[in-house]
Protein backbone atom coordinates (compact mmCIF):
# COMPACT_ATOMS: atom_id res chain seq x y z
CA UNK A 1 0.00 0.00 0.00
CA UNK A 2 2.82 2.36 0.82
CA UNK A 3 4.50 2.30 -2.61
CA UNK A 4 1.40 1.43 -4.69
CA UNK A 5 3.67 -0.70 -6.89
CA UNK A 6 2.30 -3.99 -8.29
CA UNK A 7 3.12 -7.21 -6.46
CA UNK A 8 2.42 -10.84 -7.24
CA UNK A 9 -0.97 -11.74 -5.78
CA UNK A 10 -3.85 -14.19 -5.95
CA UNK A 11 -7.55 -13.29 -5.98
CA UNK A 12 -10.08 -15.76 -4.65
CA UNK A 13 -13.72 -14.97 -5.40
CA UNK A 14 -17.01 -16.44 -4.19
CA UNK A 15 -20.54 -15.60 -5.24
CA UNK A 16 -22.62 -16.73 -8.24
CA UNK A 17 -19.36 -18.36 -9.38
CA UNK A 18 -16.17 -19.09 -7.49
CA UNK A 19 -12.52 -19.58 -8.24
CA UNK A 20 -8.98 -18.34 -7.89
CA UNK A 21 -6.84 -16.34 -10.30
CA UNK A 22 -3.26 -15.02 -10.28
CA UNK A 23 -2.53 -11.45 -11.28
CA UNK A 24 -0.10 -10.10 -13.84
CA UNK A 25 2.76 -9.25 -11.46
CA UNK A 26 4.10 -6.58 -13.85
CA UNK A 27 0.85 -4.57 -13.91
CA UNK A 28 -0.83 -5.90 -10.77
CA UNK A 29 -4.02 -6.50 -12.78
CA UNK A 30 -6.55 -9.30 -12.50
CA UNK A 31 -8.96 -9.81 -15.40
CA UNK A 32 -12.07 -11.95 -14.96
CA UNK A 33 -14.41 -12.23 -17.92
CA UNK A 34 -18.02 -13.35 -18.08
CA UNK A 35 -18.69 -13.54 -14.36
CA UNK A 36 -22.43 -13.91 -13.75
CA UNK A 37 -23.94 -10.73 -12.26
CA UNK A 38 -24.25 -10.70 -8.48
CA UNK A 39 -22.39 -9.93 -5.28
CA UNK A 40 -18.98 -11.52 -4.82
CA UNK A 41 -16.54 -11.65 -1.94
CA UNK A 42 -12.98 -11.16 -3.15
CA UNK A 43 -9.95 -12.03 -1.02
CA UNK A 44 -6.63 -10.75 -2.33
CA UNK A 45 -3.47 -12.39 -0.95
CA UNK A 46 0.11 -11.46 -1.75
CA UNK A 47 2.35 -14.26 -2.98
CA UNK A 48 4.77 -13.18 -0.25
CA UNK A 49 3.24 -13.94 3.18
CA UNK A 50 4.54 -10.62 4.50
CA UNK A 51 1.36 -9.00 3.09
CA UNK A 52 -1.94 -8.95 4.99
CA UNK A 53 -4.78 -10.40 2.85
CA UNK A 54 -7.66 -8.03 2.06
CA UNK A 55 -11.32 -8.99 1.55
CA UNK A 56 -14.26 -6.99 0.26
CA UNK A 57 -17.61 -7.33 -1.46
CA UNK A 58 -17.90 -6.37 -5.12
CA UNK A 59 -21.17 -6.07 -7.04
CA UNK A 60 -21.00 -7.22 -10.67
CA UNK A 61 -23.77 -5.56 -12.69
CA UNK A 62 -25.02 -7.08 -15.96
CA UNK A 63 -23.17 -5.74 -19.02
CA UNK A 64 -20.95 -3.39 -16.97
CA UNK A 65 -17.20 -3.24 -16.49
CA UNK A 66 -16.30 -3.33 -12.80
CA UNK A 67 -12.94 -2.09 -11.57
CA UNK A 68 -11.61 -2.21 -8.04
CA UNK A 69 -8.18 -1.29 -6.66
CA UNK A 70 -6.57 -3.20 -3.80
CA UNK A 71 -3.54 -2.06 -1.84
CA UNK A 72 -2.07 -4.71 0.43
CA UNK A 73 -0.33 -3.65 3.62
CA UNK A 74 2.80 -5.37 4.86
CA UNK A 75 2.64 -6.92 8.31
CA UNK A 76 4.05 -4.57 10.94
CA UNK A 77 3.98 -1.66 8.48
CA UNK A 78 3.29 1.70 10.09
CA UNK A 79 -0.14 3.07 9.17
CA UNK A 80 -0.95 6.78 9.48
CA UNK A 81 -4.65 7.63 9.69
CA UNK A 82 -5.34 11.19 8.57
CA UNK A 83 -8.66 12.81 9.35
CA UNK A 84 -9.31 11.01 12.65
CA UNK A 85 -10.21 13.91 14.92
CA UNK A 86 -11.31 14.55 18.49
CA UNK A 87 -13.02 17.59 19.97
CA UNK A 88 -10.59 19.76 21.93
CA UNK A 89 -10.17 18.46 25.47
CA UNK A 90 -12.44 15.45 24.80
CA UNK A 91 -11.82 11.74 24.30
CA UNK A 92 -14.80 11.28 21.95
CA UNK A 93 -14.22 10.90 18.21
CA UNK A 94 -15.83 13.35 15.83
CA UNK A 95 -18.47 11.64 13.62
CA UNK A 96 -16.56 12.33 10.38
CA UNK A 97 -13.76 10.08 11.74
CA UNK A 98 -15.95 6.95 11.64
CA UNK A 99 -15.67 6.48 7.85
CA UNK A 100 -11.87 6.54 7.99
CA UNK A 101 -11.74 4.12 10.92
CA UNK A 102 -14.22 1.76 9.20
CA UNK A 103 -11.96 1.64 6.12
CA UNK A 104 -8.90 0.98 8.29
CA UNK A 105 -10.76 -1.77 10.14
CA UNK A 106 -11.56 -3.54 6.88
CA UNK A 107 -7.89 -3.60 5.94
CA UNK A 108 -6.75 -4.75 9.37
Automatic annotation (TrEMBL):
PROSITE patterns: OMPA_2
A molecular function (GO) term: carbohydrate binding
All copies of domain OmpA-like, residue ranges: 73-108
Cross-referenced InterPro entries: Carb-bd-like_fold (IPR013784), OmpA-like (IPR006665)
Protein name: OmpA-like domain-containing protein
Species in which this protein is naturally found: marine sediment metagenome
Organism taxonomic ancestry: unclassified sequences, metagenomes, ecological metagenomes
Amino acid sequence: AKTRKPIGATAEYRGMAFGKINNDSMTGSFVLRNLPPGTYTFTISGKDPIYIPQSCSVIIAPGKLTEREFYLVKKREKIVLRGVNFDTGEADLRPESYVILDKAGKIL
